[in-house]
Amino acid sequence: MDARIVITANKQTIIDAKKIAKNNKVSLSKMFESYLRDLLDGKVELIISKK
After folding, report:
1. Would you write out the chain's pLDDT as a tens digit for each of its 51 residues?
2. What DSSP assignment string belongs to 5-47?
3. If you ran DSSP here, which 8-state letter would residue 1 be given?
4. Contacting residues for 30 by C-beta, under 8 A, at least 6 apart
5. What residues does each domain of the chain span?
6. SS3 category, 4
7. What is the pLDDT of residue 45?
């Protein structure tokens, strides 16, 4: 079952993420979902920029 979430991010970050998704022929939603799954499965590490 799918659920919706709202994410607030820097506009340029969203633009850049959309470009990456498009270049990989995947939707931004699917790209983000894949990242979250990898994070939960321990395949990637959470890195938070403190800018």
Report:
1. 899 999 999 999 999 999 999 999 999 999 999 999 999 999 999 988 876
2. ------HHHHHHHHHHHHHTT--HHHHHHHHHHHHHTTSS---
3. -
4. 21
5. 1-51
6. coil
7. 94
